[in-house]
Write a structure and sequence with these properties.
The protein is built from 11 helices and no strands. The chain is an all-alpha fold. It has one domain. The chain is globular, with a radius of gyration of 22 Å. 36% of the residues are buried. Pfam families: PAP2 (PF01569). Keywords: Membrane, Transmembrane, Transmembrane helix. It comes from Micromonospora orduensis.
């Protein structure tokens, strides 16, 4: 005579370790992705923010040495300053937000409503976090005797670096399905990396941010993209769409062929 008591029923249930990554148990999957995203947000960025708040001497010395070196180069090379100013203005937060808005409109015209919502959410959430954290940290910008550029407001994290990272992440995850596997994919990655790196470096080169401000913006932007992409991937599992690897496939590869799919 077989037994079907509570112990037997409990043994038939997947363990928590299995449920937390099982697409058939969407709550466990969502919780796991949320914890992973929170880890990305809290650990590297929070550590850097604490070092900035505590005025950690080694970080301050490193920031000042980078700032002094780049400022000296800028004073000796006016053309370099012009290039950095133009880049910094073209890829400032507001132009990137306008570009994101145009992308949202394009996605809506293709009936990719959820992908459009993800794009808007990523840019808005990251865009709101930047000014809030500037106020909370309250770090002053570099003070230079002969500045080549000026900027208002607090310094940490860099809004330019943050928004460039958000825009680059959106660019990659939306357009990877269109890039194929050849040269276009390489070009897309190069454009995203250049947008992120050069925009951040331009702010240090102009003497309006410390290097740690820019790194903080990069970390926060990457964390926001990771968190919203995790939420979108969780939704895909919930509605039964095939699993994807965002860094390889984008987050909605079916949109490229079937715009109504998401």
């Amino acid at each position: 005579m077989s037994s079907s008591g509570p112990d037997t029923l409990a043994s038939d249930r997947p363990s928590w370790q299995r449920r937390r990554l099982d697409p058939d148990h969407s709550l466990g999957l969502r919780l796991t992705l949320a914890v992973a995203a929170a880890f990305l947000v809290l650990v590297p960025f929070s550590l850097l923010a604490l070092l900035v708040l505590g005025a950690w001497a080694p970080l301050h010395r490193l920031d000042m040495s980078v700032t002094d070196a780049l400022h000296g180069y800028a004073l000796d090379h006016p053309a370099w300053v012009v290039v950095m100013r133009v880049w910094s203005e073209v890829f400032a937060p507001m132009p990137l937000r306008v570009a994101a808005l145009l992308l949202v409109i394009w996605l809506l015209r293709r009936k990719a409503r959820r992908l459009a919502a993800w794009t808007a959410t990523t840019m808005v959430v990251g865009g709101l976090m930047g000014p809030l954290l500037k106020l909370l940290v309250g770090r002053d910008r570099p003070e230079l005797l002969d500045p080549v550029a000026r900027a208002a407001g607090y310094s940490f994290p860099s809004g330019h670096a943050l928004n460039a990272t958000l825009a680059a992440g959106v660019l990659l995850l939306v357009f990877l399905p269109y890039a194929g596997r050849g040269v276009r994919r390489v070009v897309l990655w190069v454009v995203a990396v250049l947008l992120t790196v050069v925009t951040g470096l331009s702010r240090v080169a102009l003497g309006v941010h410390f290097a740690s401000d820019v790194v903080g913006g990069w970390l926060l932007g990457a964390a926001v993209v990771a968190a919203t992409a995790a939420a979108f991937t969780s939704w895909r599992a919930h509605v039964g769409l095939r699993p994807v690897r965002p860094a390889r496939d984008g987050i909605a590869p079916e949109v490229e062929r079937h715009p109504d799919a998401t």
